[in-house]
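P.,

For your records, the input lines for the assembly:
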Amino acid sequence: MKIFIAQQNYHIGNFEYNTNKIIEAIHTAKAAGGDLILFSEMSVCGYPARDFVEFDDFVDQCQQAVQKIKLHADTIGVLIGSPAQNTLQKGKSLFNAAYFLYEQEIKAEIHKTLLPTYDVFDEYRYFEPAFEWKVVEFKGKKIAVTICEDIWNLGDNPLYRICPMDQLMHQQPDLMLNLSASPFDYTHDEDRKAVIKANVLKYKVPLFYCNAVGSQTEIVFDGASLVFDKDANLCKALPMFEEALEWVELNEDGTINGEIVEPASRMPDKELNPATLEEELNIAQIYDALLLGIKDYFSKMGFQKAILGSSGGIDSAVTLALACDALGAENVRAILMPSPYSTEHSVDDAVQLSKNLNNPYDIIKINDVYESFLHTLSPLFNGLPFSLAEENIQSRSRGNLLMAIANKFGYILLNTSNKSELATGYGTLYGDMAGGLGILGDCYKVQVYALARFINRNKEIIPSNIIIKAPSAELRPNQKDSDSLPDYSVLDKILYQYIEKRKSPADIKAQGFDGELVDRTLKMVNNNEYKRNQFCPIIRVSPKAFGVGRRMPIVGKYLS
Amino acid sequence: MKIFIAQQNYHIGNFEYNTNKIIEAIHTAKAAGGDLILFSEMSVCGYPARDFVEFDDFVDQCQQAVQKIKLHADTIGVLIGSPAQNTLQKGKSLFNAAYFLYEQEIKAEIHKTLLPTYDVFDEYRYFEPAFEWKVVEFKGKKIAVTICEDIWNLGDNPLYRICPMDQLMHQQPDLMLNLSASPFDYTHDEDRKAVIKANVLKYKVPLFYCNAVGSQTEIVFDGASLVFDKDANLCKALPMFEEALEWVELNEDGTINGEIVEPASRMPDKELNPATLEEELNIAQIYDALLLGIKDYFSKMGFQKAILGSSGGIDSAVTLALACDALGAENVRAILMPSPYSTEHSVDDAVQLSKNLNNPYDIIKINDVYESFLHTLSPLFNGLPFSLAEENIQSRSRGNLLMAIANKFGYILLNTSNKSELATGYGTLYGDMAGGLGILGDCYKVQVYALARFINRNKEIIPSNIIIKAPSAELRPNQKDSDSLPDYSVLDKILYQYIEKRKSPADIKAQGFDGELVDRTLKMVNNNEYKRNQFCPIIRVSPKAFGVGRRMPIVGKYLS
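Structure tokens returned:
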């Protein structure tokens, strides 16, 4: 049996685009003699469609797409994903479903059992879990169809009471097919392989895993679809971060016809990757995820050109390099906006960076705007000493200038804030926190440096001066980040323990960090929820990013 | 049996504050000879604690609070709410629980069964539903304890598969106690009474319902706790929007000792209130909810003073009047910031408003700042005609000035955008969309007018000129909202059908609205998700507010 895996990049709610893409792959597979083609979870509408599925009209359009695709599933079996009405009048009104289409009919409708409702996932908000489990019969084979999370409980996942594959095994399936929309984070790649292998080891039938690819606002789906034979050898690994349509020939005995990519013996058994903050940790993957995150945000929003403030610091340098790679240097405009407190080398460094990248840039001094604010406010400020207010005026003047240029010429403002700054509130609302998309908001400062080294791996793109100088906001004379914040090498480790690991203050102190510093840091994190609440979407690369996956009460008083 | 209901206003995560408040009420009840005292859902930590409960340390602190309170529950029975560990190793690691404390012991732990996971609720994200149902025995009575949503399925709520009260009825309870944290919206008051009455009619035992009061960032809990006797007569109704500690004497036969507030015969049977957009619709309740929303945001964040831009328009006028009522006029500073395009009457109207309210105000012309932006940008703008960019510069100059004054003197900026503007994207990011709390963001423009009339019900506080003149942003000569937007009386109805009712374009057109206008309006709503995503929390008064309760994909392409 020749089985195709269509790893595709959908656009949420863009039914025409998604449907055409699916139909095209069906025709390619048919032309190549495919028996069956597998698509990813919620393929007709894109994942996550969020509250769109609460609109009956949206679900109707999903169903119309299924009907349209059905007509192309004549001599080839097709598995696609879509929301489906729950007609039982019991539980939520929808299922997260897969449709098995063949002979221009819906031969089976499969419902997802395990509904992830944590971090960025809200599936229990919309869907009812499956009531029953049945294999699909096709060309003499019994197929166990599951959807994404369904294979993430091997009986040992404490999150769930049910193991859907255990249910399906009562009917002795010959193979397992899984439709997924499983997002990237820098710990996930190895976990995924290990979990899929563990399923094959447990159930002893081959598994075809089709994952979505593409970025949807903040969530990056990395593809990396996989095929395992019945002996848990990896027989096919689709690429990360790009679309692909590939196939394998499944033999009668459950082996795969073709070369083994990685034998079971060489892969570790299920052993989840402990995340660390080390640079070695897949910085190339993070780079690729950010690239796709930028590309897809622009293409799906219908934008072409980006703008950003280029300060001569490391964050804007890395953001600029990423944006030039994603959108083409000619489409990324850098604006250098020195203030009275900017050092000369900052401008020089930023100019050199744009020369290296060959992207357009302008220098606009903010002195006049800054002075006009001070002058206008002087009757109220009445000679009071320089304070945070004046620092923020500079930052917001820059934000205002960038937005004005963006509005005039149709640019989208890229935000350059990193995760360490966002965590501690070291940024100005409507100033350096302005922008439509946060490129580095899920990368700690130490990871931003790692990205800079990665960008410079072959030649110096980011001037070394930008990498080696001490970080500074340059909003008052001789200012350094270290005046207000602990050293990033310490700060980031504390933040990581609190944000990613959700450790208590006592636990973190027990790891050897200074007690006063830990308390002060966690307090900064919790006191700045209100700022992050107004921040733009952040491209998610970690298991715990600020944004939709982390929901904190703003008026909360915990550790603050 | 003398039963107390403690309708209290908790501060999320402020354990010392919440615990002391609970203990104080216990002592008051004991001193008055109470047998039992009932608190609201999640009383020890406040509701909703959101992702705080994912921190073991936070849950530990909840448990410590329970232990502390337990010592005061000696001769009086106490029912409090708290997260509890799920020790079964099956399902999510926590329960949403109630503890029955008596004789300084935990006599029973009750778990919530129906976990709301829709709109602003995320309970399935954190909690496992109950595995079993058992009445609590106390002083010869059997008590059925349920938590909030548990009584919202009378067997006919399609959201749920289980009806916990049906389970508990097998043990023939003598009374029902319910701990709630059920938020206000302008449709909810009558619904709640009807649902509670329906429970009593079905199970024929008295019901004591204790709801939380107070605002938690955007969600307003209105209290309005209730007691019904076994014949479904309303025997006690606690006030809305304020704390209260009240009691009733429950007789042996299930009747209540005391006057009946509202006999069952005079209340409608369960018949949910169809929401409309009419002014009559509880505008006084909306006013009170907004007032509490402002008050609690400031008190829980530790703020005293507010600032806002006073334009002479209806939105800022209503916001200013509300803020003065909530915080005291002396604590609310209005800044009038005319631009070159402002009309003279706007300043006059805004001055008159502040004189009527007796709050401090300043007039700051933005001309210099605006000109300095134009001058600084002139090399780039290069003589291009006036456009949206220049309008936004004015709006952002105001935002920047307000934030500068706020930063300098410790004010919090109140945002004055209404729901119609936010829906259509008729506002400037970082300009008039700036601010820490959205006061009117869940009120359509027609409701803002209704609030203005309500504010003026006894005397003219908002000058009539502000109410009668045509709305304008005054960012270019002779600008009117109606240049860009449909008339609000039509627009708001379309928005309501789409946002609150989730109707399809076809359904809305079938109601008689112009087809092109409907399409254009829904497209505006969906195209401006990115703007609302960066907006501050909005005090929620409707069943569907922008913010945490409405989650849309930004890159989505539905109806856009």
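Two observations worth noting. DSSP finds 18 helices and 20 strands in chain B. Chain B touches chain A through 95 residues (CB under 8 Å).

Regards
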